[in-house]
Amino acid sequence: MPDLEISPLSGLQRRLLEHFYRQQGSRMRPAADGELWVARAEGVIAGLSLSPVAHGHWLTGLLVDPQWRGRGVAGQLIEAALAATHGPTWLFCHPDLEAFYQRLAFSPADSLPDALAMRLARYQRSKRLMALVRDQSSPTSSPGNSTSV
Predict the structure, then answer these.
(1) Contact 61/28 with Cβ under 8 angstroms?
(2) pLDDT at 57
(3) Which of 50, 52, 86, 137 lies deepest, with the highest CB count within 10 Å?
(4) Which pLDDT value is given to residue 49?
């Protein structure tokens, strides 16, 4: 697999992620208040948004070009985006994706910040979704690291 360049986008570069979503035929949009991240290999091949919420973050808009799926791109992108975050990161996904996210240290969320709980309830009126969370107490913590604070 070629080397990937994974980096956050500056405000002026947000159109790169918007363009990527359109190219993929997706109706996703980068979060207006989010930190945008992309993976590149001769152009954008994946992206996501990471928005502040409560005392953590909300991961949305994860999309990988179908030609690049199954190569670990999503995992590398998520790890890079979450490397400097503190607190929990929540996401909503279709139940079929639970095992994928569990491999990346996410687990079913027992509780959500009010803003996310209301949004999930609204989304669940028309979609099958579940909430997952990944607790990350410090930038150096890792899943299974019992010394994390």
Answers:
(1) yes
(2) 97
(3) 50
(4) 97
| Structure token digits, residue 133 | 């969370």
Least confident span in 18-32, 80-94, 100-114, 125-139? 125-139
Tokens (6 digits) for 124: 């669940």
- Supply the pTM of this predicted model: 0.87
Whole-angstrom distance, CA of residue 21 vs CA of residue 46: 9
**Domain CATH for 11:** 3.40.630.30
Scanning the structure block, which residue is given the tokens 């240290």? 105
Cα–Cα distance, 117 to 102 (Å, whole number): 20
Domain hosting 13: range is: 5-134
- In the structure, what pLDDT confidence band is assigned to residue 1 with cuts at 50, 70 and 90? low
Higher pLDDT, 149 or 37: 37
- Dist CA 4 CA 37 (whole Å): 13
- Give dist(CA 11, CA 33) in Å, integer: 10
Please give the structure tokens belonging to residue 42. Answer: 């001769």
- Decide if 148 is inside a domain: no
Q: Which residues contact 71 (CB under 8 A, 6 or more apart)?
A: 1
